[in-house]
Amino acid sequence: MKRKILGCLLLSVFLLTGCADQIYVEDVTLSLILGLDLDEDNHLVVFMTSPVFNKEAQMKEEKVAVKAYTVRNSRDLFDSTVMALTSGSKTQLFLIGKKLLKQKDWIKYLDPFYRDPKNSVTTRIVAVDGPVSDVIFFRPKDKPRLPLYLANLIDTAYRRNITVKRTLQEFHEQTIEKGMTASISEMKKNSKIMLTGSALLDEKGRYKLSINPHENKLLRILQNKKRGDFPFTISVPLKPNGQDKHWLSFGAQGIKVKTKVRYNGHYIFDTNIKMRIGISEMLFPFNVRKDAAKLEKSIQTKLKADFEHLIKKTQAANIDPFGYGLYARAYTYPEWKKVQNQWGNEFSKADVKVKVNVTISGMGTIK
């Protein structure tokens, strides 16, 4: 009997504790999008987008901008403006203006997200080509709420490998990884918001260059990341002069990437890429059954040139978003140890050879 009474008392205490900690959704401002940018005087501006649950409010989304010294300081300023207490536990997107991304120590503003367990580290981090305010205060009439719209836009593009998708946790891992530099999604606001590809950062997390959706697919392949779809539309050189444009679309499947590394005064990487493709569009007359080998060779030539162009572009910027440094550390550690703190500079001097092997496995239902 005493045990039963004691159990009831304990249960009552637990129930009372839960009731004391509860908070109504109307009393919380959920920052679903957080944005960071610099104004004309290089002062930090923090933006926030949150849903409004009040029945009397006509606008169901609240957008606020404040000038602050730090992200944590901005929360106090938000609390003095919005109707409820600000919470970052449900933040979906973290938008960073390109002007801020070029600054030396901008990453320090992410500190509260890694330090405070109430904040989310699964937030998607995105670079904005232009003012962050253009994105934050965009109110499309034919789209759902901005946080849902942007999150779905990134997820869909990521499945097609148009852009990378990077959470704060993944971004932190990339910034402390010496064998690879970070890459994040990039978007731009013109008449509408569109993903322009990915932004590539250096060893300190500063913006270096942007790559378009086609280059992003090449990046993902070189990273040996093969999830999702890889649709390509390219112009293949069928004649020796290569001047005529013959447009072809295909989907790549069964992609296999093998990389070997050796050191001979400088690093030498040999990357062999094999893929099966299914032709989905061909805007020129060609007998694929008869001359498949010729078409395969033309596609290989074009893709090889594109891979090499992307690699040289990153080497000129002293960055390695592909992770070739991971191979250098794994297979040539004594040499890697000497250059690990200047890997971007060392990779710029490396000789990277790419070989592409394409096999046409499908040409459509109508031959």
Account of the 3D structure:
It is a single chain. The chain is an alpha/beta fold and 367 residues long. The chain has 2 domains: 25-211, no CATH class; 224-367, 2-Layer Sandwich (GMP Synthetase, Chain A, domain 3). It contains 12 helices and 14 strands. The protein has helices spanning 2-21, 71-79, 98-101, 111-115, 132-136, 146-159, 168-176, 213-222, 292-316, 324-331, 333-339, 343-348, and strands at 28-30, 33-38, 44-51, 61-67, 85-87, 93-97, 124-128, 183-189, 193-201, 207-211, 231-236, 246-263, 267-282, 351-362. The chain has an 8-stranded mixed β-sheet with strand order 4-3-2-6-7-8-9-10, with helices on both faces. Strands 11-12-13-14 form a 4-stranded mixed β-sheet, sandwiched between helices. Strand 12 (246-263) and strand 13 form a beta hairpin. Helix 10 (324-331) crosses helix 11. The longest helix has 25 residues, at 292-316. The protein is globular, with a radius of gyration of 25 Å.
The largest pleated sheet is described as: 8 strands, mixed
Distance N to C terminus: 83 Å
Order of helices and strands: HEEEEHEEHHEHHHEEEHEEEHHHHE
How many independent structural domains? 2
Largest sheet: spatial strand order = 4-3-2-6-7-8-9-10
Helix run count: 12
Task: Name some characteristics of this structure.
2 domains, globular, four-stranded mixed sheet, GMP Synthetase, Chain A, domain 3, 367 residues
